[in-house]
Amino acid sequence: MSFNTFGHIFRVTTWGESHGPALGATVDGCPPGVALDESVIQPWLDRRKPGQSRYTTQRREADTVEILSGVYEGRTTGTPIQLMIRNTDQRSKDYSDIEATFRPGHADITYFQKYGLRDPRGGGRSSARETAARVAAGGVARAVLGDLVPGLEVQGYMVQMGPHGIDRARFDAAQIDRNPFWVPDAQAATDWAEYLDSLRKSGNSVGAVIEVVARNVPPGLGAPIYAKLDTDLAAAMMSINAVKGVEIGEGMGAAALTGVENADEIRMGAQGPVYGSNHAGGILGGISTGQEVVVRFAVKPTSSILMPRGSITRSGEATEVVTKGRHDPCVGIRAVPVGEAMMACVLLDHLLLHRAQCGAGPRGHIG
Amino acid sequence: MSFNTFGHIFRVTTWGESHGPALGATVDGCPPGVALDESVIQPWLDRRKPGQSRYTTQRREADTVEILSGVYEGRTTGTPIQLMIRNTDQRSKDYSDIEATFRPGHADITYFQKYGLRDPRGGGRSSARETAARVAAGGVARAVLGDLVPGLEVQGYMVQMGPHGIDRARFDAAQIDRNPFWVPDAQAATDWAEYLDSLRKSGNSVGAVIEVVARNVPPGLGAPIYAKLDTDLAAAMMSINAVKGVEIGEGMGAAALTGVENADEIRMGAQGPVYGSNHAGGILGGISTGQEVVVRFAVKPTSSILMPRGSITRSGEATEVVTKGRHDPCVGIRAVPVGEAMMACVLLDHLLLHRAQCGAGPRGHIG
Amino acid sequence: MSFNTFGHIFRVTTWGESHGPALGATVDGCPPGVALDESVIQPWLDRRKPGQSRYTTQRREADTVEILSGVYEGRTTGTPIQLMIRNTDQRSKDYSDIEATFRPGHADITYFQKYGLRDPRGGGRSSARETAARVAAGGVARAVLGDLVPGLEVQGYMVQMGPHGIDRARFDAAQIDRNPFWVPDAQAATDWAEYLDSLRKSGNSVGAVIEVVARNVPPGLGAPIYAKLDTDLAAAMMSINAVKGVEIGEGMGAAALTGVENADEIRMGAQGPVYGSNHAGGILGGISTGQEVVVRFAVKPTSSILMPRGSITRSGEATEVVTKGRHDPCVGIRAVPVGEAMMACVLLDHLLLHRAQCGAGPRGHIG
Amino acid sequence: MSFNTFGHIFRVTTWGESHGPALGATVDGCPPGVALDESVIQPWLDRRKPGQSRYTTQRREADTVEILSGVYEGRTTGTPIQLMIRNTDQRSKDYSDIEATFRPGHADITYFQKYGLRDPRGGGRSSARETAARVAAGGVARAVLGDLVPGLEVQGYMVQMGPHGIDRARFDAAQIDRNPFWVPDAQAATDWAEYLDSLRKSGNSVGAVIEVVARNVPPGLGAPIYAKLDTDLAAAMMSINAVKGVEIGEGMGAAALTGVENADEIRMGAQGPVYGSNHAGGILGGISTGQEVVVRFAVKPTSSILMPRGSITRSGEATEVVTKGRHDPCVGIRAVPVGEAMMACVLLDHLLLHRAQCGAGPRGHIG
């Protein structure tokens, strides 16, 4: 509803710029009594942290989260949780030349047009650093989900880098944590390393597609129209920097299917309905079916590249822009934990909304 | 914020079911003094109306809009505008057999699981009829936009039906209103007619991709993070029934591009910055650039088909489902005016948000 | 969040003007499965209906509610409920002279200054007729509360008319429905009838204080800061036309008390904590205690009077205004059912919010 | 909409507890380009700071505000402003005995019933320390208002302490800053000092009434029904700790007036309409008239007193509670700057809302 808040009931407001003293997330509406301290959140931030391989920016940030409120003696109190992450490697330098030009493909021109000024230090609010705050909030959401829905899991991985997709036949979830790309395909990990090394050396960058899956989501989360579970997932993913497309289940590919192909057949299983396929991505009519919830999103290549591109200055003169300094050759890599965090926040929000309107658990029993 | 409302300031709440007495939209936050009566809205509804060709459902609805409030002597008063459309062809019949089974790919199973009951008459709230209310609200948004931003245009068209995409080289906007598919390619119109006839006769259905473009959008609409213009467009399109994917500009294809390819170069034009390309779809960092805003979304094939699919009954017994009666072989056709309506509503909402935070017009001057 | 909506989860948006074709309320977020039809709502509207005694406007409105959506076979479906009430006695007449002047104490001058126009027919949106929509929505809230919290009761009554307060020593709830003023004091009913007759004949009007009490409210409803139960009650009551003050428990009188006097002592009862007094009005720190929730609000005298008052025309010329036609000598009378409706809506909203954040029932057990 | 947020567009979310490491406010939706740094906000915090006289708690807090985001080179950027205030005098001690009992008139019992736990350190979230965050946010709102509406002023003062009201005939605004009670009546200041000394020594406390006035508010702010300016003011004031009543203009006293007395007569002045009186408190139909906006609220006496009151323990046993340590004999004193801050935030929010819906300035011209 507001400019920097998402969520209906479990509401997260992120704040902070790339090069200010700190950034963070104000988390409101968290259920009380959930075990929480920094150690529960920090591991998720560590996954997103830059500088862990040669494929992400060499900026060195500890990304240490501090809980400033909302927790007493290791339990959430039900009041707002303030999560703060200090910026420690913001490197003071002269931004005057950057301030006078606009990078093609970057938000600095639109920020200037909208606000009449911008914070040029590392991109200010448009920096990928903002996503650290999302990951911290996602850590809170995961802690609560773990409490409310035992077995619920959220996992993200990369399924495409530049033009190179994974081979679904080789899908191996065990590989995800074993390579710098979070790719579930050992062969792709090797191939992509070579590809990205070459791009990185040339000063170029490339896009990616991330898939995030949630398992053991109870049926019944979501709502028919504007608070559809897929509506909120689409908004959550599209709100991440550099995302240009979002898909649920078959996604854009659903257009090419016929009704016969697309209809996931249903049969009765031991614990309820079982589906023969999951073209729907676990959501029908905006409401979860109990199948895996499957979301994909495309991240464009970062506009901060070492190769020159034509642009203009604030006074309208032609210029060429080359972005020196640290950058991510494939910013999609760090988007994997961010996508997971958004999925966790949206699922928790809808779990709470469902409790509000319908009480605990699904209401209609089948079988 | 709510289950059936979208928009931050220009807020639209739709209500009503497929087979109830009426449906409509409550439009709140509309600027005052804008010329408005039914004749301004009706033409947009007429475009969406079913039964205009053999390619849409044969249900006959006049879709006549009535303005019940918020307008005095032909001008909006600034108070809520109630738009009501009566259902006139809802055909009373016995729904008891439908009520006991679940259609594969349809929301009736999740509605039942969530709410413990459902309105089986024509799909109830999940029916595509709900989109009539959106188109009516979009008519109000267009009237206000016309007042506030002369020259702003919103146009939708179909770019893919099933596996068949248009040939962009043949793109001819003049064709859009000349065929039942709103396709800007005369050859595709002919080919698709043949394809869809064949599908329709077999009782099958098919998906589609719609593109919606807005021209002469001022730069500066949107906001950095969770009220990004693309976030709200993604949510708006994903909230339409049967939509499974949303793209801005290059969309999912952005993943395959390098930074050099993706960066839209900028030069100075007579009235401001001019871009050499529009991979960004008119939005950078969540804020409009002044280029065309380009959104695409995929509509899955309707699940109401005449070919049998395996399913279960409420008591868990195996069954086969065939959906008799009127249906849309390509429900994506009617989604074209709906996508336009959502675009108009989102743009107006962001125009008002921009006025609120930044005053009139863009603030940063280039050149 | 919006201009014409109240509630966080149980959200009511009212629409319509005094002299348009209809007015109503869009109720979103209602729990599913609750028994509801027009007969459940109509009795509450009948209580508020004008023209039932010589002390309310002689406008004749049936105030018949129609449910247009959200109910199937006598049960709420969980989707938006549209409640429509047709205006049947709006009397067409020439409003040109009214349109050019401003009534002292009336919203017509501020509507004009804000919007540049106004709907002069019966006051348009500022008319007390808008409250019919609130009462209808309150009828839905009561039906749901009855389902979720057996024994919860909401009752309003008048405790002051003009300078004449009731004698609390004579308080007799059985009297409330036996006089046209909803006053729980038989003697006051007699005295006030005489007083109001005299005022009415002179063409004057008078203010009133209404008290609304809710019994058997479970402890734990509300939240610490900006969604405090008393915050939302204050907003709900102050949003009613003509209300100028709101009190919880001791209200403004709390200022005169010392801490010793004000602290409601606690002892242990059979079913939980019992309080020796209720200065707090059933709310501590924004959260219900389980005692009676007590709210009072003051309604100013209607500005539509037959006695002349100095004013100006739209062109700034001095004039005298006398409001001819039907009016309420004490509009506070009809505010009694409206206050009850607002209390019911706020309590239900907070009950749902509590379920969302904390699950069912109070969490901390005492004893 | 959320638990700890207020405002529609200028949105303030406060966070933090009395004895945690810090507390603060996340301010979202602030217009860009406004001059702002800590020195602009700090003076307002200094006014509210405890320990400035013997009549407020002896807790020593510097209440130094730090701006962590949203400001670049001394100007707001339009992105979220994080305001942090460290707690420096939170005194570690053993809370085990407090944790097991409930103070009569205090939120600790309802927090426990709602959440199943509470933060007993200084009252946790229910502490008056939370209001420091409001004052900081109010400082931002004042800076923006100063930029947008030159001449707009907000001023609060105390008009009643315990049973002792001021004499309006002696009203002297110049006195407000010259005494520890912010009272505009030199005689009252002397009398109250004596009264409060006596109360303080006996370990008792007392309530107060605060009046807040805004001058040079443009006409046209507000909206007809649920976003009425008075609705939002009522909510804002009632959300302050310990407030039990809110009045606009005549407030509860409006009930005693007749329509003739209450109707503020209008005549034409040099710059627009001029009113002969201000019973309305500057608001008609929810919209500002251009007169002074006048709000009053009652603060109950703090429940933390040295005199014993009967209560129970968590296990339900009878006990007596005496609250040792630092406390405010009249917490209403510190509520004066808080009421001003809330007024500033609400006015700015409505100014932005008005710009959104109606553009700049009032639309209807009189004269």
Description of the structure:
The structure is a homotetramer. In chain A, the strands form six sheets. Chain A has a five-stranded antiparallel beta sheet, with helices on one face. The first copy, chain A, has a five-stranded antiparallel beta sheet with strand order 9-8-10-16-11. A two-stranded antiparallel ribbon of chain A has the order 5-6. In chain A, strand 5 (about 70) and strand 6 form a beta hairpin. The first copy, chain A, is of the alpha+beta class. The first copy, chain A, has a single domain, classed as Chorismate synthase AroC (Chorismate synthase, AroC fold). The radius of gyration of chain A is 21 Å and the shape is globular. Chain A has helices at about 40-50, 95-100, 110-115, 130-150, 185-200, 230-240, 260, 330-360, and strands spanning about 5, 10-15, 20-30, 65, 70, 75, 80-85, 155-160, 165, 210-215, 245-250, 265-270, 270-275, 285, 285-290, 295-300, 310, 320. The mean pLDDT of chain A is about 95. The interface between A and B is large, with 126 and 126 residues.
What are the salient characteristics of this protein?
5-stranded antiparallel β-sheet; globular; 367 residues; 22% strand; alpha+beta; Chorismate synthase, AroC fold; homotetramer
Following the backbone from N to C, one meets helices and strands of chain A in this order, namely EEEHEEEEHHHEEHEHEHEEEEEEEH
How would you describe the oligomerization state of the chains in this entry?
homotetramer
Q: Give a short account of the largest sheet of chain A.
A: 5 strands, antiparallel
State the shape of chain A.
Answer: globular
Largest interface: A-B, 126 and 126 residues
Domains of chain A (count) = 1
CATH homologous superfamily annotation of chain A: Chorismate synthase AroC
Gap between N and C termini of chain A = 40 Å
CATH architecture of chain A: 4-Layer Sandwich
User: Which value, in Å, is the CA radius of gyration of chain A?
Assistant: 21 Å
Number of helices of chain A: 8
Side by side, the strands of the main sheet of chain A go 1-2-3-7-4
Total beta-strand segments of chain A = 18
CATH top level of chain A is Alpha Beta
β-sheet strand percentage of chain A = 15-25%
